[in-house]
Amino acid sequence: MIRRPPRSTLSSSSAASDVYKRQSYVGLDLNPLQIEMAHNFHVLQRDKVLNNANCSCHQPPLFVQGDASALPFQAESFDVVLNVESSHDYPEFEDFVTEVGRVLAPLGTFFIADFRNDVGFAHMETVFVSAGFDVVAREDITNLVVASMREDEVRKSRLIDTLVPWYIGFLRPTVRAWAGVGNTTMKRAFASGTKYFRYQLQKQAR
Question: The whole model's pTM is what?
Fold first, then answer.
């Protein structure tokens, strides 16, 4: 999430990308171990960036443990909210979108990307409108996601073989399935009608 003021982003993703170009960036996860891992990773990345003489960096990201259906932030405290491939697991999607609307400033931006079937996406869009969002952009990126999974399989498989030691090798098939390596449930779902969309939404002005 991008917090205000200064401008700030709230995200459920731990991707580094341009985080250090932001004034203020907040990451959220329900699992405290994920929070610890993201913090440690970004400390390393920050040190690399700060050693760059051409860096025009701002404050490092903050990682907070919390529930997406009850965001632990003040109303209208963010300019941007980003959610990638996690909302399908939320037990109360409506509560999550309502909370995003609460913490976003008027005309703030909500980016969300996830997979559903056609009925699921129809429900999502109904929830967006009910929560006071306008759909600025909507794109089916299913083919791009499937191609990316296919192209990254060799790297992922080698990484799993390296990180999952031989004495717990029986876990490798489970880890591969979770990582999308091989003929996974997710790939079969995409082949049978599940789609992956990205949305850019804008909170309506008062």
Answer: 0.84
